[in-house]
Design brief:
Radius of gyration: 39 Å
Number of domains: 2
Distance between the termini: 96 Å
Structural class: mainly alpha
Largest sheet: 2 strands, antiparallel
Shape: elongated
Low-confidence stretches: 8-13, 15-25
Number of strands: 2
Order of helices and strands: HEEHH
Strand order of the largest sheet: 1-2
Helix content: 55-70%
Length: 129
């Protein structure tokens, strides 16, 4: 299963708390505190990895919970994709129906324009046929 990781030792932790030193300055009647953050050496992270035992109960529990969460997330994504596809199909059908309606109304409009233009050409005295 590979090499087991070593846990942090006291020498690895050193001054990595990030709290740093507090410097106090007087500004008028107010006291201003500045925190100076010490830089954390990268070397500590490279040579002092976190403990990880693949056969520990805690590790197995975390893995099982993660596996459940991953399955749940993927199922949710699949459902979302299916719903999106269904919605796209519904919208396509609706779009086709609306396009048909537009064609029908356009034909009706053309017919009415033709009838109106025929009446206009005949004049007011002639009876409509």
């Amino acid at each position: 299963m590979g090499l087991p990781y070593l846990s942090y030792t006291a020498s690895c932790l050193g001054n990595m708390s990030g709290s740093g030193d507090s410097n106090h300055h007087q500004s008028g009647t107010q006291q201003v505190r500045h925190r100076v953050r010490k830089a954390r050496p990268i070397v500590h992270f490279l040579f002092c990895p976190v403990a990880k035992l693949s056969d520990s109960a805690e590790y197995r529990l975390r893995r099982e919970r993660n596996n459940i969460a991953v399955r749940k997330s993927r199922d949710k994504a699949r459902r979302r994709v299916l719903l999106t596809q269904q919605r796209a199909m519904q919208l396509q059908e609706e779009n086709q129906k609306l396009q048909l309606k537009v064609r029908q109304l356009s034909q009706e409009l053309d017919t009415l324009r033709h009838v109106l233009s025929q009446r206009h050409l005949q004049g007011p005295d002639e009876p409509a046929v």
